[in-house]
Amino acid sequence: MSTPAGARRRADAVRNRQLALEAATALLSEPGAALTVEAIAKKVGLGAATVVRAFGGKDALLDAAVSGLLEPVVRRARDLLAETTATRALHVFLRELLAFQTAHHGVNDRLGGLDLPATTALRADLVRAVEEMIEGARREGTVRTDLDPRVTTTLIGRTALAVAQAQPPSQELADAYLTVLLDGLRPLNAP
Amino acid sequence: MSTPAGARRRADAVRNRQLALEAATALLSEPGAALTVEAIAKKVGLGAATVVRAFGGKDALLDAAVSGLLEPVVRRARDLLAETTATRALHVFLRELLAFQTAHHGVNDRLGGLDLPATTALRADLVRAVEEMIEGARREGTVRTDLDPRVTTTLIGRTALAVAQAQPPSQELADAYLTVLLDGLRPLNAP
DNA sequence: CGATAAGTGAAACGTGCGTTCCAGATGATT
DNA sequence: AATCATCTGGAACGCACGTTTCACTTATCG
After folding, report:
1. What confidence tens digit (pLDDT) does each residue in A10-58 have?
2. Chain B contact for A174, CB < 8 A?
3. Residue of B nearest to A189 (CA)
4. What are B137-147's pLDDT values in tens digits?
5. Which is higher by pLDDT, A188 or B13?
6. Helix %, strand %, coil % of chain B (to 5)
7. What are A47-105's pLDDT values in tens digits?
């Protein structure tokens, strides 16, 4: 069904699968959207059954959609770590992360009780990357060392998401958050 | 029914109403609890119909329960503002607010699409109190003046809630949050 | 152009939940 | 104790969703 090993797959089915994925992705970024199978199906003019069948269930569809959004973010975090100092990577990435989350209005908030394996894995990658940024910035002397890097990472993850979920989205709030957070993270004898 | 003007109200109905309220309040603080009418009813050995009828609907019941939790918090904020400096009030209250929210594990997180008038009003009161603390602390020279007090209040409200919703609850995270937040809120030329 | 298997979607189904009904139980009043 | 309005809760109802069914459609291939 989802990936029948030796069977033929019709071209229209492949196309519809892609359409469903795009519709789900679009709905994820719409604040008040219903996020039901019916809503996704209607958005592309397909039947609900077709949308569900293409992924084997609603959860799998949303997992694919969220993963697709998250993947470039994770890649960006890794690229920044490789390209520049941890301090600069942290500052740049936090700003971009906030912009991303604001644009998609908290990709998290309506995903309460769902099981999204790929998304969970990507989120773990993201946490690891931020953790590396924090540890690097500590070594570079730009982040205080009296806090556990793990705890700091958790703190950033949770608060950034909360700020991004503000309704309506506010650039002023995001800026204030970054200002307070980064100042608060500086060593005590900072410039 | 809920408050029949001239009619008699039986004592057992009054008692059951109180029991339902207590059960709902208890469930609000249990992380994974179902928060359904059925669950509330079973907790006190009543029928679901009785629980709902006592308040005229599930929303009203939860509104009463959440309000009951929130009311002493709001009063405490007001008391602190009257008793001491805004700076001290802000510091003390933030710590207490975080402890409260952690204890009740984010009273917010399962209240998504519900209409809770009394709770909303209390939250507005809370926001106003924190705003007064921020404004006062600015005048006292302990909080930076380059951020809008309104925005700062929103920032605190959203991030504090997010920190309190951490699963499992972590005192270390809460402490780190307070440290970073309060340091980040200090004037730039701080001690 | 058949023939055949894959794909489709309206309708049916199952589940979970809040709410409402109503026949019987119970507290209040005389 | 008798009477009666109030209260109760199991059952039925309505609604929202995700999922499954199945008669029908359509792409694909010889």
Report:
1. 999 999 999 999 999 999 999 888 899 999 999 999 999 999 999 999 9
2. no
3. B191
4. 999 999 999 99
5. B13
6. 70, 0, 30
7. 999 999 999 999 999 999 999 999 999 999 999 999 999 999 999 999 999 999 999 88
How many CB atoms are located within 10 Å of the residue B89 CB?
Answer: 24
* Cβ of B139 less than 7 A from strand D: no
CA dist B19 and B24 (Å) reads 9
- Residue to substitute from A94, A146, A158, interface B, most B β-carbons within 10 A: A158
Specify the pTM: 0.91
- Which residues make Cβ contacts (< 8 Å) with residue B25, sequence separation at least 6? B65, B68, B69
Q: Which residues of A touch B183 (CB under 8 A)?
A: 183-184, 186, 188
> Does residue B139 contact residue B86 with C-beta atoms inside 8 Å?
yes
Residue of A nearest to B180 (CA): A184
**Sole residue written with tokens 């959860």:** A59
